[in-house]
């Protein structure tokens, strides 16, 4: 693993609050991806998916999309919104999708690559509630939205913003995308995201992204700068808004993250293998749609298959079934040669031990699968219904552990330490050796949430739990936050665009 682009680094020890960040940088996994299925088993899922697309087909609710697919050779019968694909057509279309590309931020220091063994992490996206241990669970609002965006700027393992970290419900829907994006892009310089909730909304965000980067439409076409996620309405359907998003983003060479949301036993077959067949069919159809619009447009294979509690129907995350689905999704993405989106998720209702071990299950699987774009990387709670300030910090700590684990083990003549072993001999210790002292500051990863105190020192400092310490850390970060600079002319142009569109009423409700 190589880290580059050093950025903000903090090392504080005060009142029992420890906070150590790794520098911002690209993360590369040095390990081979984990292959949970044999080649034959993977091919069986692929072939079953092609049969679903040929025989059952997908519903495409946008007439414009059906016309494009029909012109490309898909089977679209008059008066029907069902589209069927011959296997050869799907396989030909997905071959034009690129395996790797670079995402561009308004601050080039935060550009990031997608594909291969590169792993990037993003903030939680779209919960309707915010929570912390001081004020509890509350409806998503603009103030909390802005504070999450400030944390996204400050936390070095957050490579990109993956949507609203919490839904600012107090902003009227027709202008929410305008006001939220305007504020968010001023508060955070990381790679941006726009929602494909309608053609008008995604076109607004595309234009605002161009303005913020201070570039022409032609340059933005050459330099992907904005992500969107397009979810299939599982089972086997794409709605009008999602398809409009695919068309407008792909036209402009901006990456679409095609992500079926397939919960096994609910909107997908109860077997994980069957749910993966459906996930794969839906993903292939969406990827094919992007390439019909613009062959070579960047696209990501998204996986979001998990299981449910069969007694209550509640989604379960961070489970063994979820981890297996993540690993298979990675194999499928590599088979098709496109970057892979997956997620760090859990089903806990509080930033507690359950949230940590379920997230760790998720994080291990995303790392082993070579997940290139980890959505909901920091702050997800309650199965996606809440964004937690403390969980942002806890997740950052777990991700830093992952990154430290991905550092290759040094095996050199010096690191083998034969001279140091001879110096100490039997029965001694290594604390004072020259070999140790030369590496005193850098020998080990220093966790964010630990002061390495013994019980007595920890107790004297207040005996804080990891969650309580995370609460102090996030609040200290917000106190220290400074808004990144923006060119005054660019900010003026952005504000003028938003003011004009708000005066026009924003985007109509659909």
Keywords:
TIM Barrel; 23 strands; alpha/beta; 510 residues; globular; four-stranded mixed sheet; disordered N terminus
Summarize the model shown.
The chain is built from 18 helices and 23 strands. It is an alpha/beta fold.
Q: What is the multimeric organization of the chains shown? A: single chain
Number of helices: 18
Classification by helices and strands: alpha/beta
CATH-level-4 superfamily name of one domain: Trimethylamine methyltransferase-like
Instruction: Say what the CATH topology of one domain is.
Output: TIM Barrel
Q: Can you list the strand order of the major beta sheet?
A: 3-9-21-20-17-15-13-12
**Main beta sheet: strand number and arrangement?**
8 strands, mixed
Q: How many whole angstroms does the radius of gyration measure? A: 24 Å
Second rung of CATH, namely the architecture of one domain: Alpha-Beta Barrel
InterPro entries: MttB-like_sf (IPR038601), MTTB_MeTrfase (IPR010426)
Pfam family, one: MTTB
Keywords: Methyltransferase, Transferase
GO molecular function, one term: methyltransferase activity
């Amino acid at each position: 693993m190589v880290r580059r682009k050093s950025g903000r680094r903090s090392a504080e020890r005060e009142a029992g609050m420890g906070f150590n960040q790794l520098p911002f940088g690209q993360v590369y996994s040095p390990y081979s991806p984990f292959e949970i299925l044999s080649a034959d088993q993977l091919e069986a899922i692929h072939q079953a998916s092609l049969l679903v697309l040929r025989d059952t087909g997908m519903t495409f609710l946008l007439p414009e999309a059906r016309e494009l697919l029909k012109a490309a050779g898909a089977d679209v019968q008059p008066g029907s919104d069902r589209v069927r694909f011959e296997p050869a057509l799907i396989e030909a279309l997905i071959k034009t999708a690129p395996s790797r590309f670079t995402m561009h931020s308004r601050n080039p220091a935060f550009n990031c690559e997608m594909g291969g063994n590169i792993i990037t992490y993003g903030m939680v996206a779209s919960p309707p509630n915010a929570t912390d241990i001081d004020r509890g669970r509350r409806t998503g609002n603009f103030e909390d939205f802005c504070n999450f965006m400030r944390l996204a700027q400050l936390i070095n393992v957050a490579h990109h913003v993956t949507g609203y970290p919490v839904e600012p419900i107090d902003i009227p829907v027709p202008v929410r995308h305008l006001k939220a994006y305007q504020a968010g892009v001023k508060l955070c310089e990381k790679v941006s995201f726009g929602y494909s909730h309608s053609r008008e909304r995604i076109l607004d965000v595309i234009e605002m992204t161009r303005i913020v980067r201070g570039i022409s439409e032609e340059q933005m076409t050459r330099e992907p700068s904005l992500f969107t996620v397009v979810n299939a309405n599982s089972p086997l359907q794409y709605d009008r808004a999602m398809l409009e998003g695919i068309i407008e983003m792909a036209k402009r060479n901006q990456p679409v993250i095609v992500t079926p949301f397939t919960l096994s036993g609910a909107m997908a077959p109860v077997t994980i293998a069957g749910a993966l067949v459906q996930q794969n069919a839906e993903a292939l159809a969406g990827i094919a749609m992007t390439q019909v619009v613009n062959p070579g447009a960047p696209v990501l294979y998204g996986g979001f298959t998990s299981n449910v509690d069969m007694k209550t129907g509640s989604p379960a995350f961070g489970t063994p079934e979820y981890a297996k689905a993540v690993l298979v999704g990675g194999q499928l993405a590599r088979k098709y040669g496109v970057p892979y989106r997956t997620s760090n998720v859990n089903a806990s209702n509080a930033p507690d031990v359950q949230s940590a071990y379920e997230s760790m299950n998720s994080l291990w699987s995303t790392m082993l699968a070579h997940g290139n774009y980890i959505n909901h990387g920091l702050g997800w709670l309650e199965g996606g219904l809440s964004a937690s300030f403390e969980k942002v910090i806890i997740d950052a700590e777990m991700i830093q552990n992952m990154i430290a684990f991905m550092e290759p083990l040094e095996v050199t003549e010096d690191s083998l330490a034969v001279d140091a072993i001879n110096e100490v001999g039997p029965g001694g210790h290594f604390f004072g050796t020259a070999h140790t002292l030369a590496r005193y500051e850098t020998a080990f990863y220093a966790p964010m949430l630990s002061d390495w105190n013994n019980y007595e020192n920890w107790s004297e400092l207040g005996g804080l739990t990891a969650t309580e310490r995370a609460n102090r850390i996030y609040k200290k970060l917000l106190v220290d936050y400074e808004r990144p600079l923006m060119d005054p002319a660019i900010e003026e142009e952005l504000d003028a665009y938003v003011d004009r569109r708000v005066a026009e009423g924003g985007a109509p409700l659909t």
